[in-house]
């Protein structure tokens, strides 16, 4: 349902709560073994909730993360707050990424008990809603708005924006069909939603897109239209919390320009971390905005938000996690504040020993290209050599390389079509192979890490300590030659630090 962006009509017209056994919707301590699992929705009262106070919303927390956006310090703070203060059975991350990486993600996984309940659920970002393609400009945001409704319709539970901080348990709202923050004379907030999976307003909210999707408006379908078109007419569809759930006027000033304990009176707070422009001023000459908060600078901001961080973030655990995850763990490094002059602590490697070649529309390997590939194998001794290509490799020099001892064990071909566009912009047809190669290099490094080399880039033995640095694009610091216009001959290689022997080996294989 989430992957396709389509609406299950049968589910939309359901008039009953139907609880799956796989989703523990009831707290047995409150409900008892004999509590009914079906509740008629038509007569449900969202002012009083369930008759005996039992829970009908599962204690599951949902976050949505589309795109390869790194986990930030604030992201981790909000996950830790949800874990500490809500004590959920499961925390789902609905994402189109195969995994997350970075220091802050590892903090989450290494927090006792938290890593045990974290689950990644693959979901494609919606690209359409009914017949409407989503706005290119707002696709990530509009897709997230739609995905949260679809996710809640599938699982039920508690949806949180990535910068929404649970202050105290939301369990009292699990007694209602659906709970939203909805200010007096205002529109609903969609940063925190508590809902049963068959809540009527979830259906109505999604259907409100059908005839009136405004692609150019950031918040219209996320808050304005569902309020004005549905809730104003049928307020009984939700349990309304007018204050202290997600947002209210002045929240940014309370968080970042003052220090008060008033935050503890809230249920949940939307941190507005990407809206610091609303502040209009700094807290002090040392505490300025906008800022990207981290464990290194939070102590300089004696404001309410700092107290919230101190309440949940495991600073004592941080150094242990940082050291442990730096030990040649290529997936775990967070580069916020990373020092590229000195490199990683203790000189450990953070870039995997992979070599990448990108070859578009070139099935045959030339003699010079074979020399360069073989020199990479001999001097770098990589764990993997990846050939990213859109064609099948043919010709004698591929066969020659296959005979080189040990090379075939590390050589792996990856099918990769030539990129035709970047961020919706078509690449030049004239320069497509070249511009597509430029784009492909960045995408490959984003996915694998390692070192990308040109087809005719020849180098001597690389000083391995170069691997401790974060920027790997120019990793080959001792490049020898690139042969743009002239042939490299055996004689010209005699002074190239071992590559003469490489060529001799290649010639020996061909003879």
From TrEMBL:
- Cross-referenced Pfam families: Gly_transf_sug (PF04488)
Transmembrane stretches in the record are none
Tell me the domain of life. Eukaryota
Supply the name of the protein: Alpha-1,4-N-acetylglucosaminyltransferase
Organism annotation:
Nesidiocoris tenuis
Lineage per the UniProt record: Eukaryota, Metazoa, Ecdysozoa, Arthropoda, Hexapoda
